[in-house]
C-alpha cells in the first residue's frame, strides 16, 4: 500500500523497513508488516527515502515530498528521523528537500548526510552514546557535471563514496580535506546508490534508475535501471 524505501536487518532476525511514512517491522516468512511508528502524519504527500543503521543499532531515515518527476517536488517538506531500539523516534531537523545518503566515520564521531537538492555532502558531530547530532557543516560541494548527490557509503580507509544522480558516476571523497580523490564513471546517467559487498567486501555495488527517461535516452542507455558491480 506504499513504497518501501529502505531496509535494515534486525538482531532478532527479519527486517525493519520504511514504508510510506512509517517505520515498520517485516516478518519475511509469514509476509507480515507491523507498523512501529508513523511520522509526518500532517504531510500525506510525503514518503521516506534513504536510511541506514548507526554503529549502535539505531535506524536513521529521512523523508521527502513525493516527486512530480525525478528530482522535481515540493521543497522543504522532509525531515530526518531516528528510530531507537525501544521504538521511540526523534526528529533531528526538518526543511529537507530529498533526504538521502548517510553514514558514519570509522571512529563514530562524525555523521555524514546528503540533502540532494543542496548539492552538498554535510558533516555533523556525532554522539554515539545518545545518537545526537550537532554542528552541521558543509564537507563537499558537488561540481556541475557531478549533478545531484544521492546514496552514499564509507570504505575501510574512511573515505566516502557518493552516487551522482544524473551524473553517471560514483565519486570518492576525503572527509579530512573535503576533496574529491576518485571518479568512477558508469554507462548510465541515473546512478542512485552504492555499497560494498562480496566475500571480503572488496566489490562495490551501484544501483541506477530509469524513471523519467524517454525512448531516445533509453535506447542510448539500455542498461539504465540496472545494478552494477
UniProtKB/TrEMBL annotation:
Single Gene Ontology MF annotation: calcium ion binding
Coiled-coil regions listed: none
Primary location class: cytoplasm
Stated name of the protein: Regucalcin
Domain of life of the native organism: Eukaryota
GO CC aspect terms: cytoplasm
Entry binding sites for a divalent metal cation: 100, 150
Binding residue positions for substrate: 47, 49, 67
Originating species: Chelydra serpentina (Snapping turtle)
InterPro entries documented for this protein: 6-blade_b-propeller_TolB-like, Regucalcin, SGL, SMP-30
Cofactor: binding comment: Binds 1 divalent metal cation per subunit.
Amino acid at each position: 500500500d506504499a513504497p518501501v524505501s529502505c531496509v535494515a536487518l534486525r538482531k532478532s532476525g527479519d527486517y525493519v523497513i520504511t514504508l510510506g511514512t512509517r517505520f515498520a517491522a517485516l516478518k519475511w516468512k509469514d509476509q507480515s508488516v507491523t507498523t512501529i511508528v508513523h511520522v509526518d502524519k500532517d504531510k500525506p504527500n510525503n514518503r521516506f527515502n534513504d536510511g541506514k543503521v548507526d554503529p549502535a543499532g539505531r535506524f536513521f531515515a529521512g523523508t521527502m515530498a513525493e516527486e512530480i518527476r525525478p528530482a522535481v517536488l515540493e521543497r522543504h517538506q522532509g525531515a530526518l528521523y531516528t528510530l531507537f531500539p525501544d521504538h521511540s523516534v526523534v526528529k533531528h531537523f526538518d526543511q529537507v528537500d530529498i533526504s538521502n545518503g548517510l553514514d558514519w566515520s570509522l571512529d563514530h564521531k562524525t555523521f555524514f548526510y546528503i540533502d540532494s537538492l543542496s548539492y552538498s555532502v554535510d558533516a555533523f558531530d556525532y554522539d554515539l552514546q545518545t545518537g545526537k547530532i550537532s554542528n552541521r557543516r558543509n564537507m563537499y560541494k558537488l561540481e556541475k557535471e557531478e549533478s545531484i548527490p544521492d546514496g552514499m557509503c564509507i570504505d575501510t580507509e574512511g573515505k566516502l563514496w557518493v552516487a551522482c544522480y544524473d551524473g553517471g558516476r560514483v565519486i570518492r571523497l576525503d572527509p579530512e580535506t573535503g576533496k574529491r580523490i576518485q571518479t568512477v564513471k558508469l554507462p548510465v546517467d541515473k546512478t542512485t546508490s552504492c555499497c560494498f559487498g562480496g566475500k571480503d567486501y572488496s566489490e562495490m555495488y551501484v544501483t541506477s534508475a530509469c524513471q523519467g527517461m524517454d525512448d531516445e535516452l533509453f535506447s542510448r542507455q539500455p542498461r539504465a535501471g540496472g545494478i552494477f558491480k
